[in-house]
Fold:
Amino acid sequence: MRMAIASSDGKVVNQHFGRANKFFIIDVNKEDMTFKFIETRTAFPVCIW
Structure:
């Protein structure tokens, strides 16, 4: 399974998806619950309030 995590520093999940300016993409192996970093993607925030 592939997930996008909204984070300001890549260490904690602390951003709202609509306000985030980058996402950390990870793959999750559901069999052994391991995680693999794939890439960082730049985004343009769509929620400004």
The beta strands are 2-6, 22-29, 34-42. The CA atoms of residues 2 and 27 lie 4 Å apart. The two ends are 31 Å apart (CA to CA).
